[in-house]
Amino acid sequence: MLCNNIPELIGNTPIVKIESLSRISGCDIFIKCENLNPGGSVKDRAALQMVKDAVASGELKPGMSIIEGTAGNTGIGLAVVAAAMGFDMTVVMPEGQAIEKQRMVELYGAKLRLVPPTNFKDPNHFYHKARSIAEQEPQKYWWANQFENLSNHKAHFCSTGPEIFKQLSGKIDALISVAGTGGTIAGTSCFLKNQSASTHVRLVDPPGSGLASYLKTGAFTSEGSSITEGIGIMRLVANFAKAKVDDAITLPDQDLILIANHVRLEDGLLLGSSAALNVAGAFFTALQLGPGKRLVTFLCDLGERSYSKLYNPEFLKTKNLSAETNDIELLKSKYKKMIS
Fold first, then answer.
1. 145: left (phi > 0), else alpha (psi -120 to 50), else beta?
2. Residue 297 dihedral angles phi and psi, to the nearest 5°
3. Side-chain half-sphere of 248: how many Cα atoms within 13 Å?
4. Are the CB atoms for 95 and 115 separated by under 8 Å?
5. In b/e form, how buried is each residue of 21-39, taking b as 16+ CB within 10 angstroms?
6. Average pLDDT for residues 47-53, to the nearest whole number?
7. What is the sign, positive or negative, of the torsion defined by CA atoms of 159, 164, 166, 171?
């Protein structure tokens, strides 16, 4: 494939079967390698679609700067697209995110503004800070607003979903995904459900997020916290509101650590924390649905972006988590008990 520019590299990512988990579960568990996008994550798709649509509508004009509040990957994706399309970029990020993500934002030439991690109701929250900067200088800044901007959903309805359907020849029993803005699960689930209403869609939620609770009870409630970044939320946003989800499950951080270590050593597959939660959810769903099913999930970003947390024993100790376990049979037994 010959491309004329970096944005043309976004999308058309391959799918690979996770051989070890497929063998153990009796199902074919596939993962779409979104880490192979030029910015290293699935968020490149939304970044490109949002910018293209904003340019087409006249909201984003030559000479303006893009600004966004983000936990990391959307900021990196926007920084890649901005650099390639000739825009300046400012990323507002909460302190405490993986240092690898901060470095990538700056390497692509974007300005990084760190703010204290706060409750969403606080006006200093990274979301509100990016919005307020844009509102103060509307002629200078275009705010991407990834949570409410439906170009996010559109990116996955128009590209991710069709790619998966084609790559798996339309034979998809289940889609499993985490959600942050909800754009990935929304756009992909809408497309796949349009092709076959029987495709099962499951949300996997980390502790501290209220999305699973909302889907089951209509109320945003949560317990605990998670080492994952950029996923989980405690409010309904426009992109997630479009998702067609059949079921939801919350899995603990220790499960994703076990899965990450297992596939790293058994399959040569390096997962970030969000992808590890995806794969744990896919493994659980495969065991629940029974042998012979075909499931797909997402390798959301480059695994090395989780090095300082997910693969750092000292950090995990501070969260009372163990980095030593990769006993997949232990996790299989746990999930079998949960299912029964």
1. left
2. -145, -170
3. 22
4. yes
5. bbebbebbbbbbbbbbbbb
6. 98
7. negative
Q: What is the mean pLDDT of residues 69-73?
A: 89
Spatial separation of the C-alpha atoms in residues 32 and 259, rounded to whole Å: 17
AA identity, residue 113 = R
Q: CA-to-CA distance for 143 and 132, rounded, in angstroms?
A: 9
DSSP 269-306: ----HHHHHHHHHHHHHHHHH-TT-EEEEEE-B-GGGG
- The alpha-carbon radius of gyration of the chain (Å, integer) is 19
Q: In what order do the strands lie in the sheet with 141-143?
A: 111-115, 88-94, 65-69, 141-143
Instruction: Answer yes or no: pTM beyond 0.90.
Output: yes
| Secondary structure of residue 83 in the 3-state scheme | helix
Cα–Cα distance for residue pair 77/334, rounded to 1 Å: 37
Rounded to the nearest integer, the mean pLDDT of the chain is: 96
Q: Quick: pLDDT tens for 140-192.
A: 999 999 999 999 999 999 999 999 999 999 999 999 999 999 999 999 999 99
Task: Output the six-digit token pair for 298.
Answer: 């997402």
Rounded to the nearest 5°, which phi and psi values hold at 50?
-65, -45
Averaged pLDDT for residues 66-89: 95
Amino acid in the structure at residue 112: L
- The catalytic residue positions are 43
- How far is 116 from 241, CA to CA, in rounded Å? 28
C-alpha span between 225 and 253 (Å, rounded): 9
